[in-house]
Structure formats: structure tokens, C-alpha cells
Amino acid sequence: MNYAIFDMDDTLCTLEHRRDKAMESGKMNFKTLFNPKLVEYDVPEDHVVDLAQTLKMFNTKIIVMTARPYYMEEATREWLKLHNIPFNKLITKEKNKVFQKSSLWKESKLQELLIEIRIEQIVLSIDDNKDNQAMFESYGIPTFDPMLQ
């Protein structure tokens, strides 16, 4: 079985509406940015969604690993379903890890995954964050930057 790991924000979707709303005061309001009620305004990144759907057609399991906090998990799950984005597992940041740097958190989640699956089974990681890309590549996992079209 093969696996692909997808990020959410600025990868499977754009969050321009939430980002604009969070910047209304002139500085970033993280409470607004991570408001689950605003997830419905996220817009799918069609080329990345197409890739996920294609990989699924080839029996690749899709893992969505997002730095979104735990309290956004249900809204994120519903958004993925609404937009017909395939996923077998959704991983969000736990309550005690919300403020941990994304690349460190994702590496810890990758290490947990490697208890269940072999590194060779992870055929691709799709993430817009350069630190996350470098971390996945350090494990020998091919990485696709969704911002390069």
C-alpha cells in the first residue's frame, strides 16, 4: 500500500477569505484565522485536488496532515467531504501542540506514522511550507510544492 501526505492551507485549499478577515485590524488575529465557522469559505486548489483524486485512483492512501488546531478538525473533515477531496486519515494539531512549530510537529506525526507503515510506502508529500518540505525530503520522501504550477 502506498501513501501520500497532503497539507491543507495553501495546498489543498486557499484560505484567502479567512486570512483577509483575520487581517481586518491591520495585524493577524489568530482567533479569527482559526475560527472553524470560517472554514466553509476556503477555496479548493483544483490542481492539488486533482492530484489527490488521481493518486486515489491508483490505490494510494491519502493522509491530510495539517497544522490546523484540533478544534478545527470536524469543520475541516466536512469541508474535505463537501469538495470531494479523498482522504483516509486527517491529522490536526493536538491541544498541547497548537503553538509548536509546524515542521517539528509534522516530523513527530511522521515518526508516529512510521510505527504503522514503512518509509518506502510514502510516495509523496505535498506541502507549501519550505521547512516542511525540507523535513520530508530529509526522510527521502519526494516533495511537491503546490505553489509551483
Helix-strand blueprint:
Elements lengths: L1 E5 L6 E2 L1 H7 L7 H4 L9 E2 L1 H12 L2 E10 L3 H10 L6 E5 L8 H15 L5 E5 L3 H9 L4 E2 L5
Parallel strand pairs: 1-4, 1-6, 4-5, 6-7
Antiparallel strand pairs: 2-3
Helix pairs in contact: 5-6
Percent range for helical residues? 25-40%
Strand content: 15-25%
The average pLDDT value, as a whole number, equals 95
Radius of gyration using CA atoms only: 15 Å
Please give the largest β-sheet: 5 strands, parallel
> For the terminal residues, how far apart are their CA atoms?
28 Å
Shape: globular
User: N-to-C SSE series?
Assistant: EEHHEHEHEHEHE
The number of helices is 6
Which structural category do the helix and sheet elements fall into? alpha/beta
Strand arrangement, largest sheet?
A: 5-4-1-6-7
How many extended strands?
A: 7
Low-confidence stretches: none
Brief digest:
By secondary structure, the protein is of the alpha/beta class. The chain has helices at 16-22, 30-33, 46-57, 73-82, 102-116, 130-138, and strands at 2-6, 13-14, 43-44, 60-69, 89-93, 122-126, 143-144.
